[in-house]
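> forwarded from #structure-qc
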C-alpha cells in the first residue's frame, strides 16, 4: 500500500478559493450578455454593485417597477421576498444624446439576471424598461 502525502487543509482552501474566482462565469458577464439580448452595449465591468431585497409584498413603487419589467418581458413577482445584487453598467450605445451618462441597472438573484432598467441619475433624468424603442 502506497503512503499518500497529505496536503494541508489551508492549501486546499486557498486553491479552492482561487478556482472559484477564476473559473466561474461571473454575474457581471451574465449581465453583459443579458443586456446584449436587449440590444444594449455596456462596459464589461459594472460601475457599482449593491445588495437588494425584493419585498415579499410589493408597495406602489415596486408595483410600478414591475410594470416596467413586464414591458420588457420580465416579472419580479416570482422573486418576491428574495435577496439579490444590483449591478450598474455604463451604456455605450444609447441611441440619443441624453446630455449625461445613461446606465443599465440589472438585478441578479442566485447569480442570474432577472430584472433591470435603463436610467440616468440627474434630478431631471429618466428611467425606462430594458426594451429598446428605437429598433
Amino acid at each position: 500500500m502506497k503512503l499518500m502525502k497529505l496536503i494541508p487543509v489551508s492549501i486546499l482552501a486557498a486553491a479552492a478559493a482561487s478556482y472559484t474566482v477564476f473559473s466561474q462565469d461571473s454575474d457581471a458577464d451574465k449581465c453583459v450578455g443579458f443586456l446584449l439580448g436587449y440590444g444594449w452595449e455596456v462596459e464589461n465591468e459594472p460601475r457599482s454593485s449593491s445588495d437588494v431585497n425584493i419585498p415579499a409584498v410589493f408597495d406602489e413603487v415596486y408595483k410600478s417597477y414591475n410594470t416596467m419589467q413586464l414591458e420588457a418581458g420580465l416579472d419580479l413577482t416570482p422573486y418576491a421576498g428574495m435577496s439579490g445584487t444590483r449591478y450598474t453598467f455604463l451604456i455605450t450605445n444609447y441611441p440619443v444624446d441624453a446630455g449625461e451618462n445613461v446606465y443599465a441597472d440589472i438585478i441578479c438573484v442566485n447569480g442570474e439576471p432577472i430584472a433591470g432598467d435603463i436610467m440616468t441619475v440627474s434630478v431631471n433624468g429618466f428611467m425606462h424598461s430594458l426594451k429598446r424603442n428605437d429598433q
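QC bot note: Strands lie at 48-53, 83-90, 103-109, 112-119, 127-128. Residues 1-23 have pLDDT under 50 and may be disordered.
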